[in-house]
Write a structure and sequence with these properties.
The complex is a heterodimer of chains A (171) and B (410).
Chain A (H helix, E strand, L loop, with lengths): L9 H19 L6 H15 L1 H5 L18 H19 L15 H22 L3 H10 L3 H18 L3 H4 L1
Helix pairs in contact in A: 6-7
Chain B lengths: L12 H21 L5 H5 L8 H22 L5 H8 L5 H18 L3 H9 L3 H23 L1 H7 L9 H5 L3 H29 L11 H20 L9 H5 L8 E3 L1 H10 L4 E5 L3 H6 L6 E2 L18 E5 L9 H4 L5 E4 L2 H9 L12 H18 L30
Classes of the chains: A mainly alpha (171), B mainly alpha (410).
């Protein structure tokens, strides 16, 4: 795994990331995000299957109110860019290949099951907290929002509290 | 020009969306280079082996924070406008529980929602599974939310509206930013110490950061210098700082207006009013006052009312009336009125047919009845019943009601 380590020094990567965030604040007046777009993808899929159900759901109906498309939102475009940027980064470092990243002691099916499970939990969490690590913790944290800092500290608290129970997956 | 460039969100929206993609590319690329497309590198944070997540995340926060303080300090950016459009209200309880849950999901899946996308883009199937999970979880929450009144109540519990740590601590924003910077730089050194200790425990050769010493020094110095510049801008004599601009219109609590006087103004001089219905969007769209715009209370800040010209009187319509103007409206430069009894009171007053007064009622009661009947007829389209005979056959000379409260509408 340590083969083509073209990773940046964490502080340099952080400053680069911070400059992207600063540019987003200045140009768009918004922060970075991810889970908001994921929510829109999900609602879009559900809307294709059961439009009446979406229209009647108090958490979802707002996304297509006023005749706007569910994907008609800046975050959706930003997330499209994240995917492109991620692929570009992986390709240029020679890391773009199909695989599964995991610790040595866990099987691939188990790893994929846990990945899905953790994703579902985070989806619920991000809706509850009005944002995820990007939109709430990173962007709100840089703006010194009190709720964002509480959220961020709780992410680390939750992660450390749970780490022991899933250690076999990683170590 | 003052940042942010609001036209990118409104009239130049297409250009704004192109920029959104470019911003995303920058975001995704740096996350990938940070190593966040690989779950074990992220998970190592929680076993104290490699505190990369903490280091990258906090250097990013410091960079954007002190950068913004400098831009705002020189009057180039409006910190208040950016903060209020980029961040949500603080709802302390759902944010605490959401954070704990997200941390649990993070260590189970090995990613957060954003990094799972980068992992997917790098070809990692575990990243794809995580992102699919995030989508499913979001929809699942939507279903639970819709079905459970308790979840809806919890979702808005601990509402502190816009709450920033510098307001909470009573410090100028750049000063707090500098304090946070110093504290974080100290914690970076502490994190490296922990990494070395853990490596020693495992009997590994430590100091995998040795090759980065020069870069680290440079990064720390840069952050420190920018933080100091941010604080120094406080000493600029005439710099138009965002906080000062915002202070042009002092916060007001708003004055109560009852249905009668408001109804007269709605009929006689609607152009002097800016009526905003701050109830739920659905309720407002179903029925509201004539000419009212529907802006739920939590979205009020997006209107940037403090920067409007304020030549009209602002009227806020809530469910059952407000004690004081909500934060998003308190700095409106014109007069702020709060409709007494809210929409419920208005419905009872204007949309319910008035009871005719007893025969022989005094002139004021008669006039009030006529007005309410006329109002009801205008708003509901129902023809009013004929008024009863006035007392003593005196012809009514309806006095034009005096305007109450002065309302600033000359």
């Amino acid at each position: 795994m340590e083969r083509s380590e073209k990773f940046w020094n964490p502080y340099v990567a952080g400053i680069a990331l911070g400059l992207v965030l600063l540019a987003t604040f200045l140009i768009m007046g918004k922060g970075l995000g991810a889970s908001g777009a994921a929510n829109r993808f999900g609602v879009l899929a559900l809307d294709a299957l059961a439009p009446a159900h979406v229209a009647g759901n108090s958490a979802m109906a707002g996304l297509k109110a006023g005749g706007h498309g569910i994907l008609d939102n800046w975050l959706v475009f930003e997330v499209l860019g994240v995917f492109l940027g991620g692929a570009l980064g992986a390709y240029s470092a020679g890391r773009l290949r199909r695989g599964v990243t995991k610790g040595p002691r866990v099987s691939v099916p188990m790893r994929l099951t846990l990945a899905l499970t953790g994703g579902v939990i985070m989806g619920v969490a991000a809706r509850l907290a009005r944002g995820c690590t990007s939109g709430q913790a990173l962007s709100g944290g840089a703006l010194l929002s009190a709720g964002s800092w509480a959220f961020m500290l709780c992410i680390f608290a939750g992660g450390y509290a749970m780490a022991y129970f899933v250690r076999r997956q990683w170590t | 020009m003052t940042f942010p460039i609001t036209s990118l969100i409104l009239e130049n929206r297409e250009l704004g969306l192109v920029i959104a993609v470019l911003i995303g590319v920058g975001f995704g690329f740096t996350l990938e280079r940070a190593g966040f497309g690989q779950a074990p590198k992220l998970a190592a944070q929680f076993y104290l082996r490699d505190m990369r997540v903490f280091k990258v995340m906090f250097s990013a926060i410091l960079t954007a924070m002190v950068g913004l303080m400098v831009f705002s300090g020189f009057g180039l950016a409006d910190l208040t406008a950016i903060s209020q459009s980029a961040v949500s209200f603080t709802y302390i309880w759902p944010m605490i529980v959401g954070g704990l849950l997200l941390g649990v999901g993070f260590i189970i899946s090995g990613y957060c929602p954003g990094t799972s996308l980068v992992a997917s883009a790098s070809g990692n199937l575990d990243g794809v599974m995580t992102f699919v999970g995030v989508i499913l979880g979001s929809v699942l929450f939507g279903e639970i939310y819709d079905a459970s009144a308790a979840v809806q109540a919890f979702h808005v519990s601990g509402n502190k509206e816009f709450l920033f740590l510098y307001d909470l601590l009573g410090l100028p924003a750049p000063v707090l930013a500098a304090i946070v910077t110093v504290a974080a730089l100290g914690m970076f050194l502490g994190a490296e110490q922990v990494e070395r200790m853990m490596a020693k425990k495992r009997g590994e050769e430590t100091d995998h950061d040795a090759q980065y010493r020069g870069q680290r020094k440079l990064a720390f110095s840069a952050l420190g210098v920018v933080a100091v510049v941010g604080v120094a801008t406080l000493a600029l004599p005439g710099a138009p700082r965002a906080e000062e601009k915002a202070a042009v219109a002092p916060a007001k609590s708003g004055q109560s207006i009852s249905q009668g006087p408001l109804a007269r103004r709605v009929l006689d001089e609607p152009w002097t009013l800016r009526i905003i219905d701050i109830r739920d969007k659905a309720a407002c769209e179903k029925a509201s006052l004539p000419g009212a715009s529907c802006v739920p209370q939590k979205e009020l800040a997006k209107l940037n009312l403090r920067y409007s010209a304020g030549e009209r009187d602002l009227v806020l319509v809530s469910d059952k009336g407000l004690d004081k103007a909500p934060k998003g409206a308190a700095h409106y430069p014109g007069d702020v009125f709060l409709l007494k009894g809210g929409y419920a009171g208005w419905k009872a007053y204007a949309l319910t047919a008035p009871k005719p007064p007893e025969a022989g009622a005094d002139q004021a009661a008669m006039e009030e009845y006529r007005f309410r009947a006329a109002l009801n007829s205008v708003l509901t389209g129902v023809k009013p019943p004929p008024p009863p005979k006035p007392a003593g056959g005196v012809p009514i000379v309806a006095p034009r009601p005096k305007k109450k409260g002065g309302g600033g509408c000359g």
